[in-house]
Design goal:
CATH topology: TIM Barrel
Largest sheet: 8 strands, parallel
Helix content: 25-40%
CATH superfamily: Aldolase class I
CATH class: Alpha Beta
Number of domains: 1
Distance between the termini: 6 Å
Oligomer: single chain
Number of helices: 8
Strand order of the largest sheet: 1-8-7-6-5-4-3-2
Bound molecules: D-xylitol-5-phosphate, zinc ion
Order of helices and strands: EHEHEHEHEEHEHEHH
Strand content: 15-25%
Radius of gyration: 16 Å
């Protein structure tokens, strides 16, 4: 049974509370916040102020994905804004063990993300210390891109790594997920499904979220 984490990147931010409410009543488990700085990725989104506004709109955990350079500088700000988990990119951090520990000291879950071109085995030495591993299945920066197929293999490799380490981290997928591929990603062993445009890009946001949530949570599957 997986968790649905709609990304507000593709939501109508002029109506944030209502957009969050729509997915909350349709089975969303977490709200995913994509933070982009125009340096680590070629796009700029929003920062702690909007996370704080989301915090006021829901009791669901806020899953903050930092696609920024020097994320260490901003960990406190996002924790104070109400993040329940902060995920940093392996590619953006020099002392990853220190960063992960710092996030956990803030009393929240620590995640590490890898870009499509970064191999899973680069996470071997950090994996036992994290709560979350996020596999990017598009090149980060924009919603609405196509799923990169070898991400399925990377999920399987991450499942294997977890087994070998006897670790407990959740495996999260982010990018290009929709009705056409969600079952394959679930079968590969993924736990948390970040979905932006296939929810917020749909006419009926609540129905789209509910349909995806049903697939993820069907108990006749693993
Ligand atoms: C991509 C972001 C994703 C994005 C997913 O850089 O990290 O979270 O919002 O959006 P979709 O589901 O549209 O690919
Ligand atoms: Zn994301």
């Amino acid at each position: 049974m997986g968790l649905l984490a709609p990304s507000i990147l593709s939501a109508d931010l002029s109506n944030l509370s209502q957009q969050i409410r729509l997915v909350e009543m349709s089975g969303a488990d977490w709200i995913h916040c994509d933070i982009m700085d125009g340096h680590f990725v070629p796009n700029i989104t929003f920062g702690p102020i909007l996370v704080k506004a989301a915090r006021k709109s829901t009791r669901l955990p806020l899953d903050v994905h930092l696609m920024i350079e020097s994320p260490d500088k901003y960990l406190e700000d996002f924790a104070e804004a109400g993040a329940n988990s902060i995920t940093v990119h392996q590619e953006a951090v020099i002392h990853l063990n220190r960063t992960v520990n710092r996030i956990r000291e803030l009393g929240i879950k620590a995640g590490v993300a890898i870009n499509p071109s970064t191999p899973v085995d680069t996470l071997k030495d950090i994996a036992e210390y994290v709560d979350l591993i996020l596999i990017m299945s598009v090149n980060p920066g924009f919603g609405g891109q196509s799923f990169i197929k070898n991400s399925l293999k990377k999920i399987q490799e991450t499942v294997k790594l977890r087994r070998e380490l006897n670790a407990k981290f959740l495996i999260e997928i982010d990018g290009g997920i929709g009705i056409e591929n969600i079952k394959a990603v679930l079968d590969a062993g993924c736990d948390v499904f970040v979905i932006g445009s296939s929810i917020y890009g749909e006419k009926n946001v609540a129905a789209a979220a509910a349909e995806l949530a049903n697939i993820i949570k069907r108990t006749d599957q693993k």
